UniProtKB/TrEMBL annotation:
Protein name: Thiamine-phosphate synthase
Matching Gene3D superfamilies: Aldolase class I
Residue ranges annotated for the Thiamine phosphate synthase/TenI domain, each copy included: 167-343
The gene coding this protein: thiE
Database matches in InterPro entries: Aldolase_TIM, ThiamineP_synth_sf, ThiamineP_synth_TenI, ThiD2, TMP_synthase, TMP_synthase_cyanobac_bac
Organism: Fischerella major NIES-592
Cofactor: Mg(2+)
């Protein structure tokens, strides 16, 4: 027998008449239950994100931000909201989506939980206004903090992966574009740039979309050469800009703080300027003259050595590098290299990728470097 039927059992088990809930009380009870469930949901989602920031990334700032929001949510979770809970009568506890049981990566797990937290906060914002106007306002602000946290966390992960990428494939036009890139990804490649100077934008956009999907399936970074608009259109991880391309400051305005911007450099001045302008990495070369960039004079191994001693951001030696000379480039100080023909024209792109990586991985990380690496490994991402 329910209380709304105007009867209830007293403590001696005797049926007594009771005042029916007013419509207002009924409505409040429903609101309390919604708030109770969504406060739990938002805190659980934040806790899942927090654990990755803490144990996966060792990042105190991101961990602290999650914890701060969880504590603020707890302060809204008052006894009257908790006491409205009716787990047995809640039909939603049985419902799960098949995707909840299938997380393919940390990235998809985090994205799903960011979604869950944002949804819960939106519910708390809307229903919270009916409970206490301050709750609506507080939850709105917190929802924006979650968007910022998501963007910071995803940007941080992206930059960590850049630091851990020692081989960079820059593509050249071919009918087998996806096939070759996938073969290299299978060999362990984690950084790809789409470069095609002579194709219609419609095709460029299509190719870029396919490549982005492929790279993200393999948890690799995907960069677009020259074109900020295409990078934004396909939601790429960043853009590579040469000295004749868009200024870094303008690209940064379009791309925001978390996407990667690379800059080509051929000499010390260009290197210093790129660092000052906020490049996330630089290309260093051409180390050797190369038909891929015809007419461009080689910067040589001297420039590689100079950069090795003076550069404070990640850098990739590029231009004419192949399996026969990669050790000369490494000996000159390179820890990271970028190649076009070395992989795009290889008979066995997977094997050659593995070979390049095996040579580059022989070099120990430099403990004096000003950029810090966390204990996060890309294959976990
Ligand atoms: C990693 C990397 N380094 C250098 C370049 C060359 O860029 P740019 O000088 O703009 O020449 P194009 O590639 O646009 O012909 C690069 N693409 N990637
Ligand atoms: C795009 C670019 N920028 C400097 S050298 C170069 C081309 C490198 O191509 P390859 O690896 O085939 O020599
Ligand atoms: Mg360019």
């Amino acid at each position: 027998m329910k209380r709304t039927d105007c009867y209830d059992l007293n403590t001696n088990g005797i049926v007594v008449m009771v005042e029916p809930y007013s419509q207002r009380e009924q409505r409040n009870l429903v609101i309390y239950r919604i708030l109770d469930a969504n406060l739990d949901r938002a805190r659980e989602g934040l806790r899942i994100i927090e654990e990755w920031c803490r144990f996966g990334l060792n990042n105190a700032q991101l961990t602290g931000e999650c914890k701060g929001m969880r504590q603020e949510l707890a302060s809204w979770h008052t006894a009257d909201l908790r006491s409205a809970r009716d787990t047995l009568g809640d039909p939603g506890t049985e419902l799960t989506h098949p995707q909840e049981e299938q997380r393919t990566s940390i990235k998809s797990l985090l994205q799903a939980n960011f979604c869950r937290v944002q949804e819960a906060m939106r519910v708390l914002e809307e229903y919270g206004k009916l409970y206490n106007p301050n709750m609506g306002k507080a939850l709105k602000q917190m929802r924006y903090r979650v968007y910022t946290l998501e963007s910071n966390l995803m940007g941080y992960q992206r930059h960590q992966l850049l630091l851990r990428s020692h081989l960079y494939l820059v593509t050249s036009p071919t009918d087998k574009l996806l096939e070759i890139v996938e073969a290299a990804l299978k060999g362990g490649l984690t950084l790809v740039q789409y470069r095609d100077k002579n194709v219609d934008d419609a095709v460029r956009l299509q190719q870029a979309q396919k490549l982005r999907q492929l790279c993200h399936n393999y948890n690799a970074i995907f960069i677009i050469n020259d074109r900020v608009d295409i990078a934004l259109a396909v939601d790429a991880d960043g853009v590579h800009l040469g000295q004749q391309d868009m200024p870094i400051a303008v690209a940064r305005q379009w791309l925001g703080p978390h996407r990667i911007i690379g800059r080509s450099t051929t000499n010390a001045d260009e290197m210093q300027r790129a660092i000052k302008e906020g490049a996330d990495y630089i290309g260093v070369g051409p180390v050797y003259e190369t038909p891929t960039k015809e007419g461009k004079p080689a910067a040589g191994l001297e420039y590689v050595s100079y950069v090795a001693k003076n550069c404070s951001i990640p850098w990739f030696a590029i231009g004419g590098i192949d399996p026969n000379n990669i050790n000369d480039v490494i000996d000159a100080g390179a820890k990271r290299v970028a190649v076009v023909r070395g992989i795009m024209q290889a008979e066995q792109p997977t094997l050659v990728t593995q070979y390049f990586l095996s040579q580059l991985n022989r070099i120990q990380p430099d403990p004096d470097h000003s950029y810090v690496e966390s204990n996060y490994y890309p294959d976990q991402w």
